[in-house]
Specification:
Radius of gyration: 20 Å
Helix content: 10-25%
Structural class: alpha+beta
Order of helices and strands: HHEEHHEHEEEEEHEHEEEEEHE
Number of helices: 8
Number of strands: 15
Strand order of the largest sheet: 1-14-15-2-3-5-4
CATH topology: Deoxyribonuclease I, Chain A
CATH superfamily: Endonuclease/exonuclease/phosphatase
Number of domains: 1
């Protein structure tokens, strides 16, 4: 793959080096000891405040169950967390015994949450990083995805990468060239997209960071694309995470960015050694996760749905007819008013992947009258989680 380097930007990122923790054997869902895989060039740099808060340890706890318990303990004074259930699907050929769990989530950049986004119904205390980091980690650890696609990440190097690396995840991060976070005083550096994967389940073959273009003009939006090989099946999987341009009036730009990403994905799967030249596109399944900032009636959504890559949206599986997206994936109140809409998607190759289960969306009552974010939930976007399996090759 051709690598397009993303500029790292500026910001007051503080890095601290410590030994990489080993995992204990007490986890009921064991993960391998942490090591720097081919997709992980950075060292382990821990958020020192986070580590000091762990009981008597200079390292974050390596056992994911123990870490989840400590997150819950740190959040013991918060309102009840939002409980969600999986809807299990039957597509005729039975559920897999070892599905691939995927999480898509815009976690809300810390600088934007405290600075520019103006969530007028959310107390500033609920937006503090000292609280939100535990809520974010709790959400991830509750569902334990094999593949984790995140947007608006501005605490990658000091929190998410080192903590998740210690739990067996390898990752890649691409910041936006001109992140709005850098305009906020006391920021932690630029926000961007991050893609994590469980090294016990996948081997990384290649990874590239892409700066999306519109009509061949580079834009401020990015994507990370990683080629993985499943260790248990030997099957290949190409995963992309992206975050398209926000705000009304930019529909044309989102459409152009989406077209650019689809074109680059098509080139990558056709040219990669895992897929010989001229092979059918479906030979390498695709997962494309992202905050598209686009409702299902927008052109960029239609372009993905009609792409020759054969993509479908996993969360349509929650609807009775299997054709309708959820009513919302984000719900917030800003000075301009209340926004309740569907902007986030998990696209998958429907000819080679099957959706086994989908995490349902919380009700309006669960979200609460002040909407998101809140003391119960750290982002204005809800996480999307689904279990997928490789279909048998014909």
């Amino acid at each position: 793959m051709e690598t397009m380097v993303c500029p790292m930007g500026g910001g007051a990122t503080r890095l601290y080096s410590v030994p990489t923790p080993m995992l204990s054997n007490s986890s009921p869902l064991p993960l391998p000891p942490s090591h720097l895989g081919p997709c992980q060039p950075v060292g382990t740099n821990l958020d020192p405040v986070f580590c000091q808060e762990q009981k008597g340890s200079s390292l974050c706890p390596p056992d994911p169950v123990d870490l989840l318990r400590q997150c819950e303990e740190a959040l013991r004074d918060r309102p009840p967390r939002i409980h969600r259930k999986f809807t299990f699907l039957s597509d005729g050929d039975g559920a897999s015994s070892s599905p691939i769990r995927v999480m898509q989530w815009n976690i809300l950049a810390q600088a934007l949450g405290e600075g520019l986004d103006s969530f007028i119904k959310c107390p500033m205390e609920a937006l503090s990083w000292s609280r939100r980091k535990y809520l974010i980690l709790e959400e991830i650890l509750t569902y334990r995805p094999h593949i984790l696609c995140l947007q608006e990440v501005d605490h990658y190097y000091d929190t998410l990468q080192p903590v998740l690396s210690g739990l067996g995840y390898s990752s890649n991060f691409c910041p936006k060239p001109w992140s709005p976070c850098l305009d906020v005083e006391g920021n932690n550096g630029p926000d961007g997209c991050a893609l994590f994967f469980d090294q016990s389940r996948f081997e990384c073959l290649d990874s590239v960071s892409i700066r999306l273009s519109a009509m061949r003009i580079p834009t401020n939006q990015v994507a990370v694309v990683t080629m993985l090989r499943c260790r248990s099946t030997g099957r290949y999987l190409c995963v992309a995470v992206t975050h398209l341009k926000a705000r009304s009036g930019w529909e044309w730009l989102r459409s152009a960015q989406g077209s650019d990403l689809l074109r680059q994905l098509q080139n990558l799967v056709q040219k990669h050694p895992a897929g010989p030249m001229g092979a059918p596109l479906s030979d390498i399944p695709l997962l494309v996760c992202g905050d598209f900032n686009a409702v299902p009636t927008e052109e960029v959504y239609r372009r993905f749905a009609a792409s020759p890559l054969g993509l479908n949206s996993a969360y349509k599986k929650l609807s009775h007819d299997g054709l309708t997206e959820p009513e919302y994936t984000t719900w917030k109140i800003r000075p301009t008013g209340e926004c309740c809409s569907t902007l986030d998607y998990i696209w998958y190759s429907q000819d080679s992947l099957r959706v086994d289960s989908v995490l349902d969306m919380p009700t309006e009552e669960q979200i609460g009258p002040n909407r998101l974010p809140s003391f119960s939930y750290p982002s204005d976007h809800l996480s999307l989680v689904c279990d997928l399996s490789f279909k048998e090759k014909e």
